[in-house]
Every structure is written in structure tokens, then in C-alpha cells.
Amino acid sequence: MKRMALAKKKSKASEYSLKKRAAAVHYVICVRNQDYPASLELRKIYTLVADNSATKLGLIRVIDESGEDYLYPEDYFMPIKLPRTLQRAVQLAS
User: Which CATH superfamily is domain 23-93 in?
Assistant: First the structure.
């Protein structure tokens, strides 16, 4: 019986871990801004906002220079993975 209870606990822990990862903030770096020079800065890190509908259309939603989230062409950005310390610094700066 202990094994079943232990397995159940691991299952809950796994669920929590997956939810936590899903809520993680993701970042992209701007590599093109030809059509949006006032809204996007080249080589700047932007916070990505999940939007499955936009992704299907080849667009991504980012928080731009206005501080609001807008849709932009996906090929204007490259995804990046930041170390935790850098993630915290970026979050504090925004």
C-alpha cells in the first residue's frame, strides 16, 4: 500500500512541475524590424506572450516598446533561453 501512495504523490508532483513549466516566461530577440522601426529595436530582448491562434498564422505576440502586447511576424524574432539570473534581471527592468 505504501508504494501506491508514494506513486500517487509523485504523480501530483509531476503535474505541479508541468504547470510550473507551462507558466514560465519565454523570451525572443528581435532580428528584423523593417516594417516596425518605432515599435521594435534590433537585438533587443522581448517577452513572448503565448498565443496559439497567432502562431498558426505565422505571427507571435510580444510586449513591444509601448509596453503593450502586439502581433508581429514570427521571422522578426529568434527564441532565446536565458539563465535564471538574467531572467530575473530582465523581469525587474520591465
Answer: SH3 Domains (2.30.30.40)
- Other beta carbons within 10 angstroms of residue 45's beta carbon come to 19
Residue 17 confidence (pLDDT):
41
DSSP state for residue 65 in the 8-state scheme: T
Q: Which residue has the cell 525587474?
A: 92
Measure the CA dihedral 82/84/89/91, to 10°: 80
What is d(CA 16, CA 21) in angstroms, rounded to the nearest whole number?
9
Q: What is the pLDDT of residues 38-77, one digit of tens each?
A: 999 999 999 999 999 999 999 999 998 888 999 999 999 9
Closest Cα partner for 86 from 12, 39, 2, 25? 25
Residue with cell 506513486: 7
pTM above 0.90, yes or no: no
Assess contact for 30 and 42: CB atoms under 8 A: yes
